[in-house]
Amino acid sequence: MRLAAIVAGVKMFAAQQLNRATQLILICSLLWIEAPGLSMSSLVSSQTEDFIDWWQHAVFYQIYPRSFKDSNGDGIGDLQGIISKLPYLAETGITATWLSPIFQSPMVDFGYDISDYRAIQPEYGSMADFDQLVHKASSLGIKIILDFVPNHSSDQHEWFKKSVARDPVYENFYVWADGKKNEQGILQPPNNWLSVFYGSAWEWNEQRQQYYLHQFTKEQPDLNYRNPAVVQAMDEVLLFWLNKGVAGFRIDAVNHLYEREDLADEPLSGKTADPLSYEYTKHVHTKDLPEVLAMVQHWRQLLDDYSAKHPDGVTRIMMTEAYADLHVLMDYYETADGVRGSQMPFNFHFITDVDCDSDARDFVYNVEKWLIYMPRGHAANWVMGNHDNPRVASRFGSASVDAMNMLLLTLPGIAVTYNGEELGMEDYREISWEDTVDPPARNAGKKDYKKVSRDPERTPFQWSNASNAGFSTAAKTWLPVNPNYLGLNLAAQQEAARSHYKVYKALIELRKLPTLRRGRFSIEPLSRAVFALRRTLKDYETIVTIINVSAKEQLINLTDFINGPHKLIVEVAGVESTYNPGDFLFMASSHKSDKNWQLQLSPFTGLVLSHGPVGMSAQRRLLLKQIIKSFNVVLVALLMYNLWRHKWTKVNFN
Ligand SMILES: [Ca+2]
Ligand SMILES: [Ca+2]
């Protein structure tokens, strides 16, 4: 009907204004766009696409606010700094970002110790700044996810102060316990539980004459989720921020929420002789308790109810942080009896299970295992980096930056990028002891701090080669800027003909293809050095990503993997690649099988290729699609104008 109406409209318009030749061109061009079955129609037809919710194929860009952009020259990143860079995110193609904590905090653990869950940390800005951030982000099509830190508050939170004072409302808001006297009559913590950040997980409070639990620093007392008033109070925090317009939450350290009630000792692991190291015990009573799952499901219900009640229809989501067994993570998605929890139980396997020594089979196995275990009907997610782990360039080597982004952004589902990874920023491991601020690094002492410090991956974002990498005008920034910023910065990469940033941006653009949004997926090792993944969708081009994870150049025969087409198009090639986007690669025809077609891959590089059904690169076709759409809009506008000028009754079809 739509097609018929448009054709009739064009005929009417043309009958009055144009000669026959022009009429024909107009009608043909519309037929070309609208007619089903023609390959080009796949470029504009979206009505038949399966429903994909906003988050199911998004790239979530993690911002570490303290290091992103300083707007007022105090050396600390802030909300106005983020606001000023939202256009950069939009231009890059980012549609969702999650912010590490921005709430009021004494900053013992840089915002993961919150003293007021409903206030903005003054050095980051005001609530008005936050409202402006949400508003501006929304106008640019970017959704904001906040970091929700439920396991513990700061010891400076009013709740904790009142709990210490045994205020009846807050007395049981935290996990308190009496100590045990040893044989010498000296008071000891109630059990052998250890802090993730080293030492006993218990701290004596003189005023209350009891120990309190802290799974992280002693300034981060654990909240008591066995108290319904705590659950209620935290629900209200979530609703407060939902009402501010956020699209969901990243939930911090979720598997530490509950501890065993009888405070039994944890068994020894045998992994280390240091009784103060977190590795000394097996955390069977302080981590991954079944009650965690029930709380995640409770929060999911809260988010679903909120989304259902709001006319905008936007699904509010949660992403959960838990370094846990695969079976546990899959239950977060959905339990065996069908109860749904987190939309995104973070998949940290690219951080924890592969590194620069992994071969192609390790990578394939790493991807497959998540997909094999994931319950049907859910979206996979792939986290390539975050503020707690060394950067991609430092884990896999700087030569692998483009290949890892190709992998991340062509896998099915959700991609998570830590700020700076689009440039291939590197850890600054040589930060001096004097400049080191990360709590576990300070706890480890001057001799060992470099091994555990998270400061190296948290240094300021490298915007340009200006002073402090364009991050701040301060004399001293909160963490030193990596001195490699003179060569490695965004401005340089935006100007260069080829750069990590340009590769990243091209990959995000490519992700708009229906094949990458909802195509089927397979992955295979082609050798120990090379693996390839394939995305296919009926009537659309196939996308193939090939990655060489070895230090040697590889010649690859793709004949078996690709099976059929004679021509491949290079969609994305890395900075060091010998190929260029738009290059055609021709395979030998079958009767010349003695000359099997080979592809050359430099060490640690990847390529994203496409083939069929149209012999044009997907990038160019996306551009053409925009042009056709614009053309369509102009035509419709002309028709509307004509309808307004000439009544239908006056039309004389010829
Ligand atoms: Ca600032
Ligand atoms: Ca806890």
Verbal overview:
Helix 1 packs across helix 20. The longest helix is centred in the last third of the chain and has 28 residues, at 618-645. A hairpin with a 5-residue loop joins strand 17 and strand 18 (542-548). The protein is globular and about 85 Å long. The chain has 654 residues and is of the alpha/beta class. The strands form six sheets. Strands 13-12-11-5-2-1-15-14 form an eight-stranded parallel sheet. Strands 16-17-18-23-20-21 form a six-stranded antiparallel sheet. Helices cover 32% and strands 15% of the residues. It binds calcium ion (CA) (2 copies). One calcium ion is lined by residues 151, 215, 222, 256-257, 259.
Biggest beta-sheet profile = 8 strands, parallel
Number of strands: 23
What spatial form do the alpha-carbon principal axes imply? globular
Q: Name the hetero compounds present.
A: calcium ion
Structural class: alpha/beta
What are its keywords?
654 residues, alpha/beta, six-stranded antiparallel sheet, 20 helices, disordered N terminus, binds calcium ion
Give a topology summary.
Layout: H1 2-17, H2 20-34, E1 59-63, H3 65-68, H4 79-92, E2 96-99, E3 103-104, E4 116-120, H5 127-139, E5 143-148, H6 158-164, E6 176-177, E7 180-181, E8 187-188, E9 202-205, E10 210-213, H7 228-243, E11 248-251, H8 290-309, E12 317-320, H9 326-333, E13 344-345, H10 349-352, H11 360-373, E14 381-383, H12 392-396, H13 401-410, E15 414-418, H14 439-444, H15 449-452, H16 490-495, H17 500-510, H18 514-518, E16 520-525, E17 530-536, E18 542-548, E19 554-557, H19 559-562, E20 567-573, E21 584-586, E22 598-601, E23 606-611, H20 618-645
Parallel strand pairs: 1-2, 1-15, 2-5, 5-11, 11-12, 12-13, 14-15
Antiparallel strand pairs: 3-4, 6-10, 7-8, 9-10, 16-17, 17-18, 18-23, 19-22, 20-21, 20-23
One calcium ion binds next to loops.
